[in-house]
Amino acid sequence: MMGGTSGLEQLDEMYESIILDHYRNPRHTDPLDHADVDVEAQNPFCGDEIHIQLTLDDDGKVQEISVSGRGCAISQSSASLLSEMLEGKDVEQAMEQITLMRRMLRNDNMTEEELDQLGDLVALEGVKRFPVRIKCALLSWTALEDALQERKGK
Ligand code: ZN
Questions:
Q1: How far is the CA of 142 from the centre of ligand 1 (A)?
Q2: Residue 83 neighbours by CB under 8 Å, 6+ apart
Q3: How far is the CA of 132 from the centre of ligand 1 (A)?
Q4: What is the pLDDT of residue 137?
């Protein structure tokens, strides 16, 4: 286990490297020919753009994922992390993760278990200290949530 001040510094560095890695090498960026969920979102405050496409199987499980866009490192790495989060999830599980992500960024009290459930996404926790950037971090998440909710309502 890490302890003391140096441990915390290492943790921040580790988080930063996760964010930069996803920004430089975003996952799942190939566009899909056909998508069951197709949503675009913009954050005018920062110029961020996100395009999310998914295909779902009959059980509502995510099959194919495409997430692409342009903008700041926070928005783009968050979108790439979202694409990884979606792997193997069904719609209900994805919605759960979206709720957890929003709670983390709003500095809600999170249990250890909930933080564990977020996995690498915890790398974005530091963003909560910068209210202007929370919009960047949540852009893709809110867009996906809206799209999934709309689909559910059909
Ligand atoms: Zn941004």
A1: 14
A2: 26, 27, 28, 65, 66, 67
A3: 8
A4: 96
- State yes or no: pLDDT of 97 exceeds 80: yes
For residue 69, the CA-to-ligand 1 centroid distance in Å is 11
Confidence bin at 151 (pLDDT 50/70/90):
confident
CA of 138 to the centre of ligand 1 (A): 10
Domains, in order of start, for the chain: 71-154 (3.90.1010.10)
Distance from the CA of 73 to the center of ligand 1, in angstroms? 7
User: How confident is the model over 139-145, as a mean pLDDT?
Assistant: 98
Q: What is the distance in A from the centroid of ligand 1 to the CA of 111? A: 28
65-90 pLDDT tens trace: 999 999 999 999 999 999 999 999 99
pLDDT, position 125: 93
